[in-house]
Design brief:
With 163 residues, the protein is an alpha+beta fold. The chain contains five helices and four strands, in the order E-H-E-E-E-H-H-H-H. The protein folds into two domains: 47 residues; 71 residues, no CATH class.
Length: 163
C-alpha cells in the first residue's frame, strides 16, 4: 500500500512516526517541499501490514485476561493498601535456598514452572527496597504470564524430576 502525506512538516513527521509503529515500512521518500508558493511538504511511504507475531499475540491475550481479573478485583475489594512484610533475614535465606534449588533443577535437566515461579516469589519476598521489590514483582508477573502461555500452547510437558 502506498501512502502520500501532505501537510506541515511537523504533522508529516508525527504521522510518519505513527505509521512506522503500525506498519512495516518498505520504502520511504525524504520530506520535500511542495510546489511554491505552498509552505506544505510531502512524503511518500510504501507500507504493508506487519507479519503477525504469534508470541506477541499470546502475550497480549494473557495480559488482557489479567487486566479483566484485576478490574474484577477492584470491583470486589476496591483499591487496597497493605504492608509488604518483606526483607526479613529468614526470607533472604529462603530466597537463596529457592535460587539454589532452581539452579540444581535446571542442571538436572530443567527447572519446572513451579521452581522458576517460587524462585521469583522468594526473591521478591526477600527485598526491602521498594524499587527492587517492584522489579522482582514484575518478574513474578512475567513468569506467571509465560506459564499461562505455555499452558495455552498445549505443548507436551516434560515430567519434572522428583525432589
Amino acid at each position: 500500500m502506498k501512502i502520500r502525506l501532505h501537510g506541515q512538516s511537523s504533522e508529516i513527521e508525527d504521522c510518519t512516526a505513527v505509521l512506522r509503529r503500525t506498519f512495516d515500512v518498505l520504502d520511504e521518500s525524504g520530506l520535500y517541499p511542495d510546489r511554491a508558493p505552498s509552505r506544505l511538504s510531502r512524503r511518500y511511504l510504501e507500507v504493508q501490514r506487519p507479519v503477525p507475531d504469534p508470541q506477541a499475540e499470546a502475550i497480549a491475550r494473557v495480559l488482557g485476561e489479567v487486566s479483566v481479573e484485576r478490574f474484577r478485583q477492584l470491583d470486589k475489594w476496591g483499591v487496597q493498601h497493605r504492608s509488604p512484610c518483606t526483607g526479613a533475614e529468614d526470607l533472604r535465606r529462603d530466597a537463596d535456598l529457592m535460587r539454589r534449588r532452581c539452579q540444581a533443577a535446571e542442571e538436572a535437566g530443567g527447572a519446572s514452572w513451579r521452581d522458576v515461579l517460587l524462585e521469583e516469589v522468594f526473591e521478591a519476598l526477600a527485598e526491602d527496597n521498594p524499587a527492587a521489590l517492584r522489579k522482582e514483582l514484575v518478574q513474578v508477573a512475567a513468569v506467571c504470564v509465560a506459564w499461562i502461555e505455555d499452558i495455552d500452547s498445549a505443548a507436551p510437558r516434560p515430567v519434572p524430576p522428583p525432589f
